[in-house]
Structure formats: C-alpha cells, structure tokens
Amino acid sequence: MSTALEPALSVRQVLTLDRVLAGEPEVVAGAGHLDRPVRWVHVAEAPDVGVMLSGGEMVLTTGVLLAGDVEKQAEYIRSLHRAEAAAVVLGLGRAFPTPPDVMRRAAERCGLPLVVLHRPFPFAELTEEVQSRLVRRKFAAVSLSESVRTALTGLITAGAPLQRLLDEIAVHAACPVVLTNLAHRVLATAGERSAVDDVLRDWERIARQAGGSEGDGWVRAELGGRGERWGRIVLCGYRGDSPIGRLLAERAAEALVLHRMLGGPAHSWEEQSAQGLLTDLVSGVVPARQLLPRARAAGLPVNRRTFVPLVVRDGEPAGLDRVLRLLGLSGLVADLADGATAILLSLARDQDAEALTAHFAARLRTESGTLGTVVAAADARTAWEDVPAGLREARHVADAVAAHSAAQDLPAVVRLKDVHLRGLIRLLRDDPHVQSFAERELDGLLCGRHAEQELLPVLRTYLATGRNKSRTAQLHHVSRPALYRRLEAIQALLGVDLDDFEQAASVHIALLAHDAQQG
Amino acid sequence: MSRVVRAAVFQTAWTGDKESMIQVHEQAVRDAAAQGAEVLCFQELFYGPYFCQVQDPAFYEYAERIPDGPVVKRFQALAKELGIVLVLPMYEEEQPGVLYNTAAVIDADGSYLGKYRKTHIPQVKGFWEKFYFRPGNSGWPVFDTKAGRIGVYICYDRHFPEGWRALGLAGAEIVFNPSATSRGLSGYLWQLEQPAAAVANEYFVGAINRVGVEELGDNDFYGTSYFVDPEAQFVGEVASDKETELVVRDLDLAKLREVRDRWQFYRDRAPGAYRPLTAP
C-alpha cells in the first residue's frame, strides 16, 4: 500500500520541466530507464555519495571531485547503481567540458540514466522545483485516498448495494470498472455504458492476459480476506498516473472486501450478477442485444447455442445451481420477483432441448427430495433476441401452474400447452379487452356488498368442480338447500343461467381472468 | 475442418461407502450421456476415499482386478448401453500383494481397451502412496477410442514432463489427468502445470480433482476440474472448488493440427541431445 501512496515523478518527467529544459539536458547513458520514479532530488559532490542514499534519488553533481581520476569516476557510477539511485545529472563546465566517457560507459553498463546539462544552472532551483512538486503530489495522493475511503465507507455504512459502490469507484477512476471472480467471470460493472460494452465485448481476450501490464492503464487489485481470494477489481484503461490508479484500485478493493464481509453470504455476488442480468432480460427495458456482452462475460456460453428459458416457483437459486453443476449444464440462475426463480440454460445446438429439460426436471425432483417441483418451460430459442419473450412465457406458465388447483398432479415439465385455458388467460391478463370482459361478466358480484363478494368463492368452486352441486356444498360445509339459495343469488346478481353451458363457460373464463389479475 | 469431441470429467466428494460412490458415478455417466458426451473420465481412485492420507492395510481391499473385477464389468455394461467411452481411475490388484494406481479405459461399445498404471508414486505427508502402490510398468499407452486417441497421466505424474511428452509422441489427442490434490499443497500449480503440458505437447488436457474434506485426514480437495486446449486456454469455465460437478465441454480437435502447424514443436525437438535424461 505504501507503494501506491509514494508520489513520484519519473526521470523523464523531471527532464521535461521548463527549468530543466533551459539547462539543455542530454541523456548520454541509460536511456532505456527513464521511466524510473524519482523519489527525491539530492545534491552531492562527495565521491562516496552512494552510502548516503536510500534509493530512488536523482543525484545532481558537477563532478568536481571526480575530474582526472577515471577509476574514481567509474566507481562513483557503480556506487550510485548499488544504492539504487534513479539517475545522475552532471552539470558540464566546472569539472568536465564534455560528457566523460568512462562515466558514460559505466552508466550504460549498469543501466543508470546519466544526464548531462550543457547549460548548468544553480542546482538549488531544480531541487526546489522538484521537491515542491513531489510534496504537492504526495498531498494530493493522501487527500484523494482519504476522500475515496470516506465516500466508500459512507456508502457501506449506509447499506448501499454493490452497484452503488462500483458506480462511486467509476466516478473517481473515470474509466470502466469491472468486478470479477477468480474464474474471470464478470460479476458487476460500472462506468459509461458504451465504454463498458466495449470492454465486455473483448472480455475473453482481456481476461486471459494473466497479470497484465499496468502500462496500458489496466489496473488490477485482488479481493480477499481470511486467507482466501475471491476475485479482483479491474480499472479498465485508467488514464491517470499509474500510482494513483493503483491507489484507487486498492481503496476500491478494501471497500469491496468490507462490503462483502458485512453483507454476509445471503446472496453471493455471482447470484446478484445473474439476478441483475435475468431481471433486465425479462423486463425488456434494455434490448436483449445490448445484454449479450454481459451474458457472455457472466460465463454463459452464447455462440451457436440453444437457449432454454425455465422458471421454478419457490426454488432456491443456490440449490438449482447445484443441480445444474451436477448435470454439467451451463446456465444462469436467479430469483425474479414474486418467488419465481428463472433458469436460462445454454445448450449446444445439437443437443435435444426437450430431453435435457426433462432430464433436469427429473433430477431436480430426486435431488431436492420434493416430488412436486414443477419446471415451467418455454420453447427453446436459438436467437438471443427471443430469450426475453421466452423467459416471460416460462413465467406465465409458472404463474398458471401456481394458480392450478391440482399442481401436484402435473408432470415435471409444464409448457404453455399444458396449462390450457389458464395459460391463455395468464398471457392475456394485461389486455384491456380481457380486463373489461372480466369486469363486465362479474360486475354484480364484484361491486356488491360484502355478503355478495362472499359468493365469489362458491362460484369458483362450483365451476371448478364441473358444476357439481353436492361436491360444492360439501367443500363449503353447507347444506344443499343453502347452496341452491346461493347459486340462485349468484345467477340473479350476474343475470346469467349457469345451467346454460355457454353462459357458464363465459363466467368461468371471466373468473379465471379475474384471478389472473389478482395473482 | 473441425472435429468436435464432446468430452466430460466428473468431480465429487466421498460419500462414505464404495457402493454409493459407484452409484453416484453411474448417475454421472447417465447425466453425461444425456448431454451427448462421448467420453468421461472420473477422479483418481474414484470409488474410494483418498485413503493415502493414512497408511492402513485395511484399504488394500479397495483394490480390484482389471479388467476382470466387478467395477470394470459394471461400467463396461454401462458404457455399452449408453455408447460412451469411460476412463476409470481405480485401485488395481494384479495379484495379492501386487497393487497399482491404475486407470482402465473402456470404449463406447463396452470393450476393454487397456490400462495405464501411475508411474510416479509420491510419499509425502498426506499422500503416503508408496505404502499402497508399486510404480507403474505400463509404459505410455494411448488408446484409440471412438472419441479419439486418449492418454491418461495420473495425479503426481503431472509434475514430470517426460510422461506428458511420451503420450504426445504416441499420438494422444486428449490426455486425462485424474487427481486427488489438496488446497495448501498444490493450489498454485493446478492451473499452471497442465496448461503448460497442453502447450508443450500440443494436445487437450482434462484435469480432474475430487472435492471436500474426508474423514481420513485434513486434505481439503479443491476440485476446480477443467479442460484446457493446446493454447493453454481453458475450455469454458473451471469447475467449482467445493461442489460436485460434471464438466462437459466441446473440444475441437482441429485446433491440435492448427497449433502444431503453427509451432512445430514435434519437428524441432532434438531427441539426440536428450541422452542425459535417460541416464540412470
């Protein structure tokens, strides 16, 4: 961490300062090492200056004590190299009219940048300039570190979700920010949408660059605690100085670790990531095409695949994910709203989607130990753009199943065709024509007094039992004469004859539509 | 011209007894076949605990004859029924007192193709294998299966590049490396050595490791089984480090030719200069 806070100018940056340029600097050795950080600038004429250094210094000298002694000159350079000095600047004129060849060769061998000033100026001007810049940088770094830490800690203590934290990090970094697990699966992103999409589009290739270099602005920090690593945060294409980028990434990593530890294991980041993606897909707010890079980065195979949208009611995502792993099926699992869990399977094109769905549903029953688990399935989709409609269809089927009185008798996989009229009504429940039809047909019962509303369950049972009066009376614990009176009241209120098949069917459909509205 | 093989590996935790362990693996064969997998390899000593955490002769009874023992017979029938190639890493008794750490290879028609016996046997804390196994004497067989030319290199073998190379020279296209290896010991090598072997020898590698902590010791087996291609790229994701998982992946064997044409390691190797490697 101290490295990130260490402010530094590179040798190259020092050489481009106006004050230095005026001295006509020339790099005569070690030109390949100009990106070394300069931690301090030190004026020293002593021949044994090496022993006074602690590394990272740019040493300024006139060489006045070295002139005429080539052995001393070479040893001077070697001692600076041993002391890990950043560079040595030699003012020409006093001791050396031209760059001394021995020092140049020694510096080249050690890889120590040797810079000569053709128009030397008082060294004090340079030390003052560089030192004040270093101090300003150090102050800026400490101040940035503190402000980022304060902002992130504030968010964590306020109970902010992961995404909010990442958004804040992205504001400070001014570049896309990606959170991944150890398998390089993208769990969350933040930053400007189009820039994030560009990063995700190429994620496979980027993720494979183990370690990666920071020179290109990719700054990574590991997330972990209690001896275990969980993932990493990546600033993608950070444009500022790399020490500041590292500092930001480290502050971000600390905050994310804290967030995860405080958040507990209720919903893993993997689950939250899948949930965000599947919820966006179902809602249709973001076009499916735009979600494709996110799906790919989340580990879902998407090239030349068949997608099978499934929904299970009262399923538990971790348990469903376990069964997928057991069967070796690729897929995303996440809770949608209202107790529905969506599963998006990704199969190879040559695989039999129906057979594998049946296999999954059967194994789900044996593995979960609940024989009644029903998997609501939509038809498989080969086009990614059709996936949202498929997920919505599967959810409609699951809803229809939930409303089904005899759900326990259903097969392990249920499709739209299996839920018959209920499925149709579910699909059409948002249609205003269907809504007004239900209102119209049931008006007398729905708008009446409390006593009249109590007739609704009687009507529901009567129709569900196939107009079986004795069964209805039994289920409602009333005598048959009492039931007859209630049925007469219902018929009078609705103005229908329930013995007439068409009229009874119409009321039945209206009731299903009404129930679908409520569910 | 692509030639895709759908290959699978299976990692799981010790159930507590041999029969239920076998049943878990039978189910895995069915699950793999349901997905159209053409070949499946299990973890090292698949139907037992990793008993080498202790040195106890009671575990000798886990050894079976290959191919005449009941486990091989049982999986031959299953391979035939489902049309899938199986690699069964198991404890082999050649005769009483002559025991090996072996993998039997069954073709998709149920026929027994042969076996590989683990060559390098470790003897370190938690991995007391010399107590149980003789070093293998099978050489470096490669099996011509319906799913391609398959080699097996078992667990500790993977630290020795020579065997990987011998399998490559014998024409292996996919080499399975069934293992039992624990978190503290080899975690940092697990995603390094096999990908390196895949690159050096220009073939696919399927690496399998069991999961969980067993009653015989503290070894925390970390799973994370995977397939890796001849460019050292993982094929799909790496498996869980804690859960039972079947890994099914499509391997395009055309990549093997593509990579070999690019690099030509087999052309440029210099066997004449390798004599010191075989000096005793």
Chart the SSEs and their pairings.
The complex is a heterodimer of chains A (519) and B (280).
Chain A: H1 2-5, E1 9-10, H2 11-15, H3 18-21, E2 25-29, E3 37-38, E4 40-43, E5 57-61, H4 70-82, E6 87-91, H5 101-110, E7 114-117, H6 123-157, H7 162-173, E8 177-181, E9 186-190, H8 193-201, H9 203-208, E10 219-225, E11 228-235, H10 242-263, H11 269-283, H12 288-297, E12 305-313, H13 317-327, E13 330-335, E14 340-348, H14 353-368, E15 375-377, H15 387-402, E16 413-414, H16 420-428, H17 432-446, H18 450-453, H19 455-464, H20 469-475, H21 480-494, H22 501-518
Parallel strand pairs in A: 4-5, 5-6, 6-7, 15-16
Antiparallel strand pairs in A: 1-3, 2-7, 8-9, 8-11, 10-11, 12-14, 12-15, 13-14
Chain B: E1 4-11, H1 18-34, E2 39-41, H2 70-82, E3 85-95, E4 98-106, E5 112-117, E6 123-124, E7 127-128, E8 142-145, E9 148-152, H3 161-169, E10 174-179, H4 183-190, H5 193-201, E11 204-209, E12 211-213, E13 220-222, E14 226-228, E15 245-252, H6 254-263, H7 265-268, H8 275-278
Parallel strand pairs in B: 1-2, 2-3, 9-10, 10-11
Antiparallel strand pairs in B: 1-15, 3-4, 4-5, 6-7, 8-9, 11-14, 12-13
Helix pairs in contact in B: 1-2
